[in-house]
Amino acid sequence: MVSTWNKLNVTYGRIEASMKLPIAKGMWPSFWMMPLEEGECYLSAGEIDIIESINDDMNSYATFHHNNNSQCERKYLVSQFNGTSVPTMNTEFHIYSVIWEPDWMVFMVDNVIFNVVNSTYPHLPIPQTGQPFYIILNTAIGGGWSGSPNETTTWPQYNYIDYSINDLALYNYVVHYYLQHPIHDHNNNVNYHWQTI
Length: 197
Fold this sequence. Notes:
Jelly Rolls; mainly beta; 44% strand; seven-stranded antiparallel β-sheet; 197 residues; 1 helix
């Protein structure tokens, strides 16, 4: 596991990693962010899952979780979740990233958007606390979502990390560029513009 807790804490910007992921029953590689200070309630400051993948389904999932209840009841944990197919995730390096602003988040694979979260999404306000988050890269073996390894699981398994960055210069360039140019989805449809997120 790689954790930047108390070493690199991030509030807003572009966060990305280039990774080649393990695929097998029971594998659960993740690249995610948690608040440096949890606060009064579980996930009251949110959790940013830049990429999660399970087993061998060859999909990248990105999620923003948030507890929107002041009584801290876990049943009020809400999420915006989306996935996209990455058929070569175990044979090639891909760039998994999020751009996080106070009112929105954009999740991408290889700079192609597949999930957008904004503060107008019903019951999912992005916390406005300016809370710093730390970065985690890990591979869980087994768990409630992936299930346990079985006789089909081959060993060893590796999560290759080529690099991980929080590059404000690159982020500023990307935001400037996409303010002027439309962004295309996997089907080459123009469906998002930075200025309208």
